[in-house]
């Protein structure tokens, strides 16, 4: 809509002096030019918020709007559009007078800058992964283009679209036959012509393409008679060929078989991508240095295992101590009562020692649910937050799986797990994150989310929370497990450990039941978690432990004040929490530098 003309106010019969008219015209022209320039910039932020919070809140909603519009994850256009968004946001951020910001504003500035840089890098890594399978799905761009044209509301030529879809169906069939010939001609002992990793990635790509094609079809079918007349048969053929090809890759390349457990196949990202991810999390260590840290933590655990085993009368044989504790589980049906009692015990311990503020509503609203057998295949232990999901055997499981689930969720393992998932762990943490500095939700990191819960396992150990040697065994199992997570997850992504070797490592080095170890590895490599997620538990806990010594150990803060302050910072990289609490000098070019271990 064009702006209405602005006419200078005059009293009836009065005439304006020529100079005044010219001056008013100049003001109008300047105003129009200025408004035109500003229209290319983001709209002004909410004036009720601090400048950086307003900028971050606007970035969040702008990004969410774009992601609702650009939902085709396989699309190069989507990547290009988001990259332009991140770049323009970064350029705009560069114009902020950093030195005039207060400490919180400077922290927010650095968080946003880091986020923009690393989201752009993530798009590049995603593009590289798609490039690596382009020979397995050479037809993908044509299907993606159909849906992109629809979303951009371009007119559809149904006959031409039918030719495209029919041609894609033929190319899918041809590509599948080409892969089959390569597999047939492969020499025994030679590298596979198509790796399991790329085969699985391509199969998932095909699933997405089928969904994309279905969404495209559903928009027109039944509403456009010409579309239905031309496309019914080509669509059905193309959908069938995509499904057949995906099934073929899973069966012949990945090795899946009907009625058998899905093989463990991950998608390692490589060393450079790991380094980029570590920089994004503000961890100034190499993967190799982190592996060294994990090994040193393992040494502490080994010594404590020997001590606990000796106290239980098993000499220094930690496996016998573990086997003893694994057998101390409640009867079927009694697990919910145990969880309630352990949760109440944890809250009492914290409040009696004034370790952290626990709002009464937080204590009131948590709930529990029983985990389904299907979920237990990838999450053999509890998960939590406001709702704690209890892993325990069901009547549909095999006898072997029931026994392993009982042993893996015994009383003393649960005693450490419940406080990790509820209070003071994830439930208290998420409760506070929903109420303090909520604009920082976009910067959430597992090094704080999981590190916070793991930190409390360490802190409670130091404060005497484990009453018996059995309790110590329960807590040591999880602490050893978190050391192992650093090792197997980093080595997997570095290409130094296969998924099956990771399972064996958890069984032999930590003492997992094999079913639970397999589920643990499957969850870690399936793609639902970031590459550093498993390492973040122990490493984030060590960061918080170091910061606690710096703040509480030196008398700068009380335990409660420190823990409350960390929670109110929201789930951001711990180096930035440290900078805020210590009021460290910051520059706009600041890089991660805190060596916490």
Tally of contiguous helical segments: 24
Give the DSSP E fraction (strand runs of 2 or more residues): under 5%
DSSP strand tally: 2
Task: Give the overall shape, derived from the CA principal axes.
Answer: globular
Low-confidence stretches: 1-42
Straight-line N-to-C gap: 61 Å
Task: Give the strand line-up of the largest sheet.
Answer: 1-2
The structural class is mainly alpha
Number of self-contained structural domains: 3
Overall pLDDT metric:
89
Helix content: 55-70%
Order of helices and strands: HHHHHHHHHHHHHEHEHHHHHHHHHH
In short:
With 597 residues, this protein is mostly helical. The chain contains 24 helices and 2 strands.
Please tag this protein with its features.
mainly alpha, 65% helix, globular
């Amino acid at each position: 809509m064009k702006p209405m003309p602005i006419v200078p106010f005059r009293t009836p019969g009065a005439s304006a002096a020529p100079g005044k008219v010219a001056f008013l015209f100049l003001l109008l022209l300047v105003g129009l030019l200025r408004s035109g320039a500003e229209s290319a910039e983001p709209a002004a932020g909410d004036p009720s918020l601090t400048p950086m919070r307003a900028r971050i809140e606007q970035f969040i909603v702008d990004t969410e709007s774009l992601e609702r519009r650009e939902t085709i994850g396989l699309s190069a256009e989507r990547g290009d559009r988001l990259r332009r968004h991140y770049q323009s946001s970064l350029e705009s951020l560069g114009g902020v007078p950093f030195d005039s910001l207060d400490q919180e504003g400077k922290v927010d500035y650095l968080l946003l800058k880091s986020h923009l840089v690393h989201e752009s890098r993530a798009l590049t890594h995603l593009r590289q992964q798609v490039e690596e399978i382009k020979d397995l799905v050479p037809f993908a761009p044509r299907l993606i283009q159909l849906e992109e044209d629809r979303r951009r509301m371009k007119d559809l030529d149904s006959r031409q679209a039918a030719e495209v879809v029919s041609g894609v169906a033929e190319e899918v069939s041809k590509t599948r036959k080409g892969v089959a010939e390569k597999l047939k001609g492969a020499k025994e002992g030679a590298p596979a012509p198509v790796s399991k990793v790329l085969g699985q990635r391509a199969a998932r790509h095909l699933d997405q393409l089928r969904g994309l094609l279905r969404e495209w079809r559903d928009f027109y079918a039944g509403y456009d008679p010409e579309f239905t007349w031309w496309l019914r048969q080509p669509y059905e053929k193309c959908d069938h060929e995509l499904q057949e090809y995906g099934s073929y890759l899973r069966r012949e390349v990945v090795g899946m078989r009907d009625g058998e457990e899905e093989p463990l196949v991950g998608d390692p990202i490589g060393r450079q991508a790991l380094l980029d991810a570590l920089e994004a999390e503000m961890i100034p260590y190499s993967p190799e240095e982190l592996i060294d840290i994990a090994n040193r933590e393992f040494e502490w655990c080994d010594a404590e295992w020997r001590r606990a085993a000796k106290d239980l009368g098993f000499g220094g044989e930690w496996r016998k101590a573990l086997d003893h504790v694994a057998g101390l589980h409640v009867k079927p049906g009694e697990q919910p009562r145990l969880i309630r009692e352990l949760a109440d015990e944890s809250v009492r311990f914290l409040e009696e020692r004034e370790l952290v503020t626990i709002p009464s509503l937080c204590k009131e609203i948590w709930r529990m649910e029983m985990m389904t057998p299907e979920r237990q295949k990838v999450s053999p232990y509890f998960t939590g937050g406001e709702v704690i999901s209890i892993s325990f055997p069901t009547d549909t499981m095999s006898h072997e799986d029931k026994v392993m689930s009982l042993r893996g969720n015994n009383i003393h393992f649960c005693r450490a797990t419940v406080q990790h998932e509820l209070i003071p762990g994830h439930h208290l943490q998420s409760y506070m994150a929903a109420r303090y500095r909520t604009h920082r939700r976009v910067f959430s990191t597992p090094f704080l989310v999981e590190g916070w819960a793991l930190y409390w396992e360490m802190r409670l150990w130091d404060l005497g929370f484990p009453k018996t040697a059995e309790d110590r065994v329960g807590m040591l199992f999880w602490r050893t497990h978190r050391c192992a997570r650093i090792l197997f997850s980093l080595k997997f992504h570095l290409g130094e450990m296969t998924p099956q070797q990771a399972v064996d490592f958890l069984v032999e080095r930590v003492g997992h039941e094999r079913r639970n170890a397999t589920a643990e590895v499957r969850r870690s490599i399936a793609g639902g978690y970031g590459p550093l997620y498993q390492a973040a538990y122990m490493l984030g806990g060590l960061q918080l432990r170091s910061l606690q010594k710096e703040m509480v150990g030196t008398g700068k803060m009380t335990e409660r004040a420190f823990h409350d302050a960390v929670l109110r910072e929201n789930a951001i990289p711990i180096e930035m929490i440290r900078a805020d609490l210590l009021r460290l000098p910051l520059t706009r070019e600041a890089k991660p530098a805190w060596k916490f271990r």
